[in-house]
Design a protein that fits this description.
The protein is of the alpha/beta class.
Length: 534
Amino acid sequence: MDTMTATALLSIDDLSITFNNNANYTVNNVSLAINAGETVALVGESGSGKSITAHAIMRLLPYPLASHPSGKIFFEGVDVLSLPENKLRTLRGNDVAMIFQEPLSALNPLQTVGKQIGEVISLHQAISNGQLQEQIIKLLNSVKIKDPLSKINSYPHELSGGQRQRVMIAMAIANKPKLLIADEPTTALDVTVQSEILDLLLDLQKTMNMAILLISHDLRVVKKMASRCYVMQQGKIVEHQATATLLSHPQHPHTQELLQAQPDANPVPIASQQPLPILSSKQLAVNYPLAKPWFFSKQQYFTALQPLDIQLYPGQTLGIVGESGSGKSTLAMALLKLQKASGSIYYQGQNILPLSESIFRPLRQDIQVVFQDPFSSLSPRLAISEIISEGLRVFHKLTPPQCEQRVIEVLDEVKLDPELRHRYPHECSGGQRQRIAIARAIILKPKIIILDEPTSALDRSVQVQVLDLLKDLQRRHQLSYVFISHDLQVVRSISHQLIVMKEGAVVEAGDSGEVFTKPQHPYTQQLLQAGLDH
């Protein structure tokens, strides 16, 4: 058993997990322990077995497909794996609660926030409707949701990412659990929201004396939250130390790799500044019409993007940073002519904004896009070769063998095994899917690629690999990038120029190095403090 005391709140002893009785165990002889009121981190890359181990604690694995060739899980001395179903229901949500990685997937889209929180309470407590309403509002207040009364009747899609994560936390702490399992609770959140959520968890822990098992691949988050840390690799615990010791003196090679996987702050050198930008905008703005209260009312508009001017030169990266709702993605969609906008967009000196779709379509191959979530942007019904070659079939009349040859070449260019072309997206890892999305973009030999949060859902080590790939492609093909991200270390690694956005407006712009070292606007200073210091 782990070196923790026998009185640990949770102890996992020699746990193995396999699926379909496969001889290759997904989790292999894992032991860990957590004391009451303590935060312990379980760290590793995607596929290392972190989340599967966490799900086993609450017996949420797909039994009987999943099985345990060895091991025990004890919560307050009780063997969880042998609990009958009625006692297991008491354990879940009452003694042990869980925050899932993606709240939009975990929350029911057909039920209001109030109903979902209320269900968690009423399942474990005998409570009247009046008391239930009062308890829900109290919980929303405790997770610092503004105007909770108005949010009770909101649906998950009507909330921001940070608000949805707070709702998940409210559901998790509703019955004052002794152990909270937080599975990547801040992965896709903006840096300021991420910092707020982590501070909230720390405050709740102190107030409730709650233990936290933090599942994460972000060592900055682990440093802030956890007193001890377990490192997982390929289903095994390879290192366990106090967090401060592990971060300063890692023993295992894999831990050392995780710590060294940080983006460098060295964008691709530009040989010489070109006299004319390849892409620019003048007074580009996006306004959404609001619903009229009655037919003869004057039309009102919501300004999603205030008039702005940008300039992007050949071989250069323009970084765009800001929180959710700041207008980053709206700007990207406007530049791609996928969003109705006003003003002017110049591509190689030509104003493309007023062009009809039929006239603009041939130019689309020059301006490509890589989206945030490749799993959503890649068709699950098409093989990788069909996905990558789709643009070729639209813009070029090539024979099937010629298409396949180009797919093989581009897969090799993004450093993927060409044999991967016969697979489907679900058979690939997150990093592989993002490389496939990049391959789909570069197969048409574009001059500009717009990258919308291309690394936000990836492990730090995979992020570094994807950034190195993008820099290599930029160096070889003189590509120009518009790089949108909320991760400041990632933006710093690749950007030559930087735009900081807030509430649809540019609050600061300039040379990337200068903005990072001498930020002028208070909002930029706040972003940098939240993103680089925590």
